[in-house]
Amino acid sequence: MQLFILLIVAALVFSGPAAAQNWQEYGYPDYAFKVSFPDDPRIETTTHQVADDRAVEAHVYSVSRDNAEFKVTVAELANSGLEESAVIDYAIKALAAGGEVKVNIPHRVNRVFGRQLSILQRDGSRATVALFDYNGRLYQTVGKSLATGNDATADTIRFVQSLIFTGGASNRSPEEIRAAQAAFCSGTGEPGAAADAGTALPGGNRRAEICRRRQLLAGLVSSLNSGDLSGAQQAYSLLTQLPNNGQAQFPNPNGPFRQAVNQIGQALQNGDLAGAQKALSLLQRGRRADRQL
Questions:
Q1: What is the pLDDT of residue 50?
Q2: How far apart are CA 98 and CA 104, in angstroms?
Q3: What ranges do the domains of the chain cover?
Q4: Is-contact 197 185, C-beta < 8 A?
Q5: Which of 104, 143, 134 lies closest to 17 in space, CA to CA?
Q6: CA dihedral (280, 286, 288, 291) positive or negative
Q7: CA 73 – CA 35 distance, rounded (Å)
Q8: How many CB atoms lie within 10 A of CB 75?
Q9: Half-sphere exposure of residue 68, counting CA atoms within 13 Å on the CB side?
Q10: Would you call 36 exposed, middle or buried from its count of C-beta atoms within 10 A (0-12, 13-18, 19+)?
Q11: What are the residue ranges in the chain where pLDDT is below 70?
Q12: What is the per-residue DSSP string for the chain?
């Protein structure tokens, strides 16, 4: 299975990010971040729940469309006494209330480390989420594709991945980074159980992305095997949004392995779960026969 995952990881670099249409980057130096919105965001100051008994001041930047919502919440954690793990866990619990977490993996933006999630809600909407406890604040970035209208998953992924932290600081000490590097990608790889070690790799972009690819691929395979079409589509979309980082391309783009992987992606884009499952089955059976890799 590990070899199978590594082979597919090398293949999943088909599509680029969603096409830019009216998207613009907005910078907020007072809060050390930049993010791209499809329109001028509404900005408001409110309160945000960060624990059962704790609400703090928060600044919210948001854009709503007929089929999607884009929101960054920056909650003030200074002097709250809350541990990072508690803040992140509470945020995940609150965001997933009434729904199901389909993907939960380590995430990194610049030198800031946190979590990235995909959450399926009961009403059919799907949220792409990035969470960071950084510099005394919780940064909660959520792109939600609503159940109504055209599918906005590509836009929600674009939005979440456009987040940039400015200032060059980190939320990991050198000791934590070294310890995490030693335990790199040592988790189970199962959805919802990604290794925390993958969140703290200093400048190890390529290795960190390989770890994330493996974890997302495990989620894709698991979703296909369990018949979860939306979960498979989200995992595949996240995979194709990751940078290539020098991964080897197929010498023969017409080889059976590449064709099978292409069929998985095409079937998922068409909403054809059975077709994607069949392509996965053929790929698993034929992976040893493809000697072109």
A1: 97
A2: 17
A3: 2-14+24-249
A4: yes
A5: 143
A6: negative
A7: 12
A8: 24
A9: 22
A10: middle
A11: 1-21, 177-178, 180-210, 242-257, 285-293
A12: -HHHHHHHHHH-----SPPPSS-EEEEEGGGTEEEEESSPPEEEEEEEEEETTEEEEEEEEEEE-SSEEEEEEEEE-TT----HHHHHHHHHHHHHTTEEEEEEEEEEETTEEEEEEEEEETTS-EEEEEEEEETTEEEEEEEEE-SSSS--HHHHHHHHHT-EE-SS--SS-HHHHHHHHHTTT-S---TT---GGGG--SS-HHHHHHHHHHHHHHHHHHHHHHT-HHHHHHHHHHHHHS--TTPPPPS-TTSHHHHHHHHHHHHHHTT-HHHHHHHHHHHHHHTTT-TT-
Place of tokens 């034929």: 286
Contact 235, 118 (CB under 8 A): yes
- Say what the pLDDT of residue 136 is: 95
Spatial separation of the C-alpha atoms in residues 103 and 124, rounded to whole Å: 16
What's the pLDDT score for residue 32? 96
Q: Which amino acid is at 214?
A: R
The CATH number given to 2-14+24-249 is 3.40.1000.10
**In the numeric block, which tokens belong to residue 234?**
């989200």
**How many whole angstroms separate alpha carbon 217 and alpha carbon 212?**
8
pLDDT value for 15: 39
Q: Tokens for 122, please give them.
A: 């009961």
CA quadruple 136, 238, 147, 95: dihedral positive or negative? negative
Q: Which two tokens stand for residue 167?
A: 């200032």
